[in-house]
Amino acid sequence: MMYRIDLQCPKCSYGGVKYKSRAAYRRIANEDRCRLVIDCSGFPYVDYLGLTTLKTVVADLIAANIQTYLVVQKGDLRKLFEVTDFYETVERNRVFEKLDQAVKQAEE
Predict the structure, then answer these.
(1) Beta bridge partners of 96
(2) Is the dihedral of CA 41, 44, 47, 49 positive or negative?
(3) Using one digit for the tens of pLDDT, what is the confidence trace for 15-41?
């Protein structure tokens, strides 16, 4: 079973990510394999606080045994991941440019 959570992130308010991911986790906690694909295309802007929160949320989900993948279509956000320590927390193979690639990986 896979859940899709589309988030609009005005001014990088990632509280919705935490709330919705926790709600999804509670619904699927009894599943043998939990997967979550976060589509970041709805994030109009990501500042340092937003980036730090996103790293923390993804790390927490992975620690809770939820296979988490990000879809990052915007070049600016991908560049931000490159020039910061984002990939020290989140593995590069969890970040995809296209939604169908992330879903395919999550289904494997």
Answers:
(1) 71
(2) negative
(3) 555 666 666 656 655 556 689 999 998
Joined together, the tokens standing for residue 8 give 């609009």
Q: What is the DSSP string of 71-95?
A: E---HHHHHHHHHSSHHHHS-GGGE
What is the C-alpha to C-alpha distance for residues 61 and 78, in angstroms, rounded to an integer?
Answer: 21
Domains of the chain: 3-107 (3.30.750.24)
Q: What is the 3-state secondary structure (H, E, C) of 5-26?
A: EECCCHHHCCHHHHHHHHHHHH
- Please give the DSSP secondary-structure letter assigned to residue 56: H
Whole-prediction pTM: 0.70
CB 71 within 8 Å of CB 37:
yes
